[in-house]
Fold each of these.
Amino acid sequence: VVSSESGYHEAVFKSVRRADRECSIFLRDGTCGQDECSVRCRGLVTRFWNDSVGVPAVTIDRFYKPAHDDYEYYDLTEQCVDKVVAAVPCTDVCRRADSTVQCYNDQYGKLDEKKPKFVPFTKLQHRRILRECAAMLGISRERLYLFRRNGVEYYHDAKCLLRCFMLREGLYTDEDGPHFKRMSLQCEGNYNDGAYRSKAKSCISNLQDQYLDRCSLAYRIADECVNGEIAVKNIFVGAVVQLSPPDLTNLLSGLPSLLPGLPTLLPPITLPTLPPFTLFPTQPTTPRPAITLFPPLFPTQPTTTTASPTLIPPLPTLFPPLPTLFPPIIVAPTTTTPAPTTTRAFTLLPTLFPQLGR
């Protein structure tokens, strides 16, 4: 049985029988000459199988019911899967899928083929649902770029977009809050942990008592209450990153390196240069007038050399000027005729006594 009820929006539920019926139609003409691949196809349709991993995901346990008195089913299943991985090469995807799933049939529990189970969404489906929600809420791709660059928590319309995303995927309702089993299947978490669910329910109850608006309540539940291994917020942010436009400046600047032979179609982008920001402005270079707090005690000395006033008048000459000890020497001009020689008396000291007669 496959169902997609109105209350679950885009959520899809399929049983093992329904998946096998679809695969029988797909594989009617064989699989390009390969062996039986119906079990691998079942895993691809219900999304518990990935060829690159080569073993079933933990979400396969939603189709099995372990016995109440069996406490070794998990370890026995793991041991069986390890033996298959060691024996069957990863390139033989059909036989690897058939053998590993048989380990679950033999060791894990009873297979429930009739009851429909939630089918996790793919990354492509996440982007499609997010694009539809953005269109319904009138959110542009440029707005998504702001969500990606600055953070979802700073925009109320981003919180409303997250609420729409969880509603459309059937992971959340305004009345009951998050659906733990579906969130666990979507994020490959462990919803059997009773302690985790009890803690999350207490967190949700506290937020519901705060009378928040629906968008804020949905965001805070996803951010605070189910932010562990059930990280639906991380899936939402990843889809926002995929749908938001890239940074055009970095994209255009990297084109020459990506395509060296590409001619230049656009002129180089020159970003404006902002003036440097200085937390403390520099002091002005013009000198400021000196501030005198107290008057000078002594007058300032003049900067130019001036004659200081004479306090003591000049003293009279006590002694008359002494005669010249050496008279000036007169150099006669050079002539052919020698100059006459005159004899002058040399007086060292003035005559204190008159000459006596001879």
Amino acid sequence: IASVKAINAARMALRGDGTHHVSLDKVIKTMRETGADMQTKYKETARGGLAVNIVEC
């Protein structure tokens, strides 16, 4: 399934005309701000959110 998604993403990227609604710089800035605003326990630590509510098998 992941390979199909990768192929579809590549096809979509290659079909584009090179113009973008949001610049890469704005995307990176926004993601950085989002990460800075996010509480540490919700960042890839598995210490918050659903990770603390899943029963161990």
Amino acid sequence: MVSQAPHQEFVEHEENLPFRTFLHSVRSCAPHSHKDCEFLLTLKGDVQVQSGEGEFIMREGDLCFIPSGQIHMTEGITKNNILVVLQIDTNLARHGDPDFAQRHFKFNKMPQALRKEALENLRALIAEISWEMRMRQTGYRLHCEALAMTLLSTLVRQVPSILGANDDTEGSEDSELGDRLSRIVSYMEAHSSEEISSGQIAEQENVSASYLARLFKSRLACTFSDYLNMLRAKKSLALLAKAEYSILDVAMESGFPNIKSFNTVFKRTFEMTPSEWRRDNKGANIPGIGESAYGRFDKGYAYSLLKRYLPARLKQSL
């Protein structure tokens, strides 16, 4: 059987409110899930996100939504990145929208004009919640809870979604599917530099190869081989930061068959070549694959960046 699964994170809410918000600078966040849904807003820098929506790079001002229970991970691409994180108890949404947990939001597939409007509205609400929780003025708890409800209703109203459970149907419950994928991801992390195949994993899990392919497509929006290559690219970062390894050495140690495939996957994953990344990060202390690590940042500066996304009425009062 495969090894221990990526952990399910317990979200501790603030002051008995149905959410938690904080700022951080991510270096590497290992695969994990939590019962709360999560919004990520990039204030500075570039961050790679892998989730059920696929693999993409968040740049300054970009927004990402992670549904409840979805395995996801983040990787800082540029130094000194800063994110706003807002985690909300989905039970808050279910009071007004019983179907919320079954909604699959298609934010990244919206027409550009509609996406811009939704993005501006959602960013303003996230920024205001974060600002209010920092300033703690009279009535801030009531105001923030109301803002969280408005945020969720804005998501439902302005972002297209489809209803229905995941289309994985080999007799397992949804939670069992999540556990199975977690085991598989954990095994792939531990053995990413070795020769492993989807057939081997399917045999270990006693499922068909076609079922495994559907599981990856529905839960991580990618193929088994794409995910394995992404893990290998991430593993290569710690080696690239060490000057004693040649690019060829890094490629082979990370599990790539040759330097050409390494360059192709790396550029697709991080939108730069291994040599370009090494130039900017030589000597950096890069966490290993499966480890989480966060960087230091200036909170005062971070909140000054946050101000640009506050609604106009609030900016005028500052």
Amino acid sequence: MIRDNAITIDEAAKLVKCSYHTIHRAIKKGDLIAYKPGKVVLILEKDFSIKQIRTVRAGRPRRHLEVHSRN
């Protein structure tokens, strides 16, 4: 049975310590292979790797300030 060798999106998110949406986005981009044998989306353990998930820090990019002397 597939469920014995697979994890859900929620379980994958907990393993990687990221959000459900990050895992779902990786599936939509094709970075992660998932199956939907019913209502639940499953990721096979053999197809899952933490390296496949790219997390991007939310927020503004840092501003680079130039310091000028008053001489």
